[in-house]
Amino acid sequence: MPDAEVIPFPVTPMRRLESALQSLVKAQEEQRRAVQAFQDSVAQLRTQTTLLRESVRDFDEELRQLGQEARRAHAAALTLEHTAGRL
Question: Is residue 2 part of a domain?
Fold first, then answer.
């Protein structure tokens, strides 16, 4: 049997419209997922920047306290030096 040539049926305007609408729905769904992923990323970024801000604030407080301790130690060392100089 020889190979038969398949002749496609003509696509009606209604079928083209249905196909276009299906493509549009699919594209909208992909876009919705992309927007949701973006929003999730922004939320994660917000959380991480909040944690970073708190960490930097804690670090700053520790540095401030260390600075105060260093000033007190320096003052005590000067006092000891002055006292030792009088002996």
Answer: no
